């Protein structure tokens, strides 16, 4: 047994926010209350002055496995997630080969059984991510896929999208969409605006996102499908999602820490490290995202953890791939830029990183209850630390060198300690 002593236990699902103790036994939360220390415990963790929260849940990560394991693999990705306080993650299907058949999915699931945290997989909506033919969604769901997405590649064929949504509605499973119309984009990864003009680039306008957000929300309304709009970046997208929710569409929406923390100006300071799809946009857009989170229009904070090698990110801005890692900085960015600045309470913020992502996929996690899985994170919301090294295989983060508040002290999954900040830091 493990005793977690004197922590501020914050459970957004039940509204619990109280100094309490937790007893963990056989991978589950045995008791919640006040308990005396004794020799019967294998370990006693002093959580005085620290937050004890449900293990974080990220529904949008790229572990690059199979096919691109020089950037990340399931082992290093899981380790990075644990270091960031995550106990559950959902991997995207844009691997090589693509997760569009049962064989690839089963092989991944077999390897993931031994990982320190819960790792789930989406499957592709279309074969080979080509947007021409639907995958066998019922078979992939039966084989263990938790949802469906062609993430990274928008599906242009409206008829095919509608067919996919009808199938998803019948299966009661969500579909997630990357919303950027390539026909409206000059240069991806950089907002079409003042910064792009300074750099002599055409950029990617917010309109490219907004037209597909509107389309897919309308199709979801008509089909009854549950959809997830990934990494929302635009003020107008927030407004569209707000309206469509009021009309009854089953729409969830994500925002990333980079989009609520940075603007397009970061590209001038950080170069390719700040290049991401959809791009970082204006201060007006950033504020709208924060408002959307606060009002419940945006439901989930997800990282879109996207590792790339130094060689790839060292290319010219136009040629470098878009994307950044985010698992190890997400909690701290939220505490620093949302909670400490008064935009959200700690419980409201944690709800977006636990309860809501778990609810989207119907996962039994994201809460602290007697009898529930002992998936927990213990962190110090007041501790300041500098972003320097990562457990991820890649280090493509625009936050390197930044000082943030909120330090993960322990991550516990299935009742086992899978990360402590006392461990030796990974050196690249």
Features:
Urease, subunit C, domain 1, 30% helix, 428 residues, TIM Barrel
Overview of the structural elements:
The chain contains 14 helices and 16 strands. The mean pLDDT is 97. The protein has 2 domains: 2-52 and 371-420, Urease, subunit C, domain 1 (Roll), CATH 2.30.40.10; 56-361, Metal-dependent hydrolases (TIM Barrel), CATH 3.20.20.140. The radius of gyration is 21 Å and the shape is globular. The chain is an alpha/beta fold and 428 residues long. The strands form 2 sheets. Strands 1, 2, 3, 4, 5, 14, 15 and 16 form an 8-stranded mixed sheet that branches. 30% of the residues lie in helices and 23% in strands. Helix 4 packs across helix 6, helix 6 (206-223) packs parallel to helix 7 and helix 7 packs parallel to helix 10 (283-295).
| Helix-and-strand structural type | alpha/beta
**Overall form:** globular
How can the largest sheet be summarized?
Answer: 8 strands, mixed
The overall pLDDT average reads 97
- CATH level-1 class of the largest domain: Alpha Beta
| Tally of distinct domains | 2
Number of strands: 16
**The CATH fourth-level homologous superfamily of the largest domain:** Metal-dependent hydrolases
Q: How many distinct helices?
A: 14
User: Whole-number radius of gyration?
Assistant: 21 Å
Oligomer: single chain
Give the SSE order as H and E letters.
Answer: EEEEEEHEHEHEHEHHEHEHHHEHHHHEEE
Low confidence ranges: none
State the end-to-end CA separation: 35 Å
**What is the share of helical residues?**
25-40%
């Amino acid at each position: 047994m493990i005793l977690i002593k004197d922590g501020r236990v914050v459970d957004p699902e039940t509204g619990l926010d109280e100094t309490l103790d937790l007893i963990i036994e056989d991978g589950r939360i045995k008791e919640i209350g006040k308990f005396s220390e004794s020799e019967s415990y294998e370990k006693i963790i002093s959580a005085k002055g620290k937050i004890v929260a449900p293990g974080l849940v990220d529904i949008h990560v790229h572990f690059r496995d199979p096919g691109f394991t020089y950037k990340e693999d399931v082992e290093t990705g899981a380790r990075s997630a644990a270091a960031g306080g995550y106990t559950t993650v959902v991997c995207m299907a844009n691997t090589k080969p693509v997760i569009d058949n049962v064989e690839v999915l089963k092989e991944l699931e077999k390897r993931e059984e031994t990982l320190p945290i819960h790792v789930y997989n989406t499957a592709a909506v279309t074969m080979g991510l080509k947007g021409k033919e639907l995958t066998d969604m019922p078979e992939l769901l039966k084989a263990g896929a938790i949802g469906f997405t062609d993430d990274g590649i928008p599906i242009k064929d409206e008829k095919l999208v509608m067919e996919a949504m009808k199938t998803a509605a019948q299966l009661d499973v969500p579909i997630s969409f990357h919303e950027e119309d390539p026909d409206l984009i000059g240069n991806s990864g950089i907002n079409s605006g003042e910064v792009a003009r300074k750099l002599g680039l055409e950029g990617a306008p917010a309109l490219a996102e907004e037209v597909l957000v509107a389309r897919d929300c309308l199709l979801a309304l008509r089909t009854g499908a549950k959809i997830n709009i990934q990494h929302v970046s635009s003020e107008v997208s927030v407004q569209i999602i707000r309206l469509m929710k009021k009309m009854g569409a089953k729409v969830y929406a994500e925002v990333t820490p980079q989009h609520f923390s940075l603007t397009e100006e970061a590209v001038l300071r950080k170069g390719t490290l700040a290049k991401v799809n959809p791009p970082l946009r204006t201060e007006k857009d950033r504020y709208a995202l924060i408002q959307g989170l606060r009002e419940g229009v945006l439901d989930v904070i997800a990282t879109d953890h996207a590792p790339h090698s130094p060689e790839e990110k060292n290319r010219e801005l136009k040629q470098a791939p878009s994307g950044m890692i985010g698992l190890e900085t997400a909690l701290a960015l939220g505490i620093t830029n949302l909670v400490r600045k008064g935009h959200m309470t700690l419980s409201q913020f944690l709800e977006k990183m636990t309860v809501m992502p778990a609810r989207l996929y119907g996962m039994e996690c994201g809460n602290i209850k007697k009898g529930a899985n002992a998936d927990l994170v213990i962190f110090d919301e007041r501790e300041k630390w500098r972003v320097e090294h990562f457990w991820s295989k890649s280090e493509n983060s625009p936050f390197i060198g930044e000082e943030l508040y909120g330090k993960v002290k322990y991550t516990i999954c299935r009742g086992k300690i899978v990360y402590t900040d006392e461990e030796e830091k990974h050196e690249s």
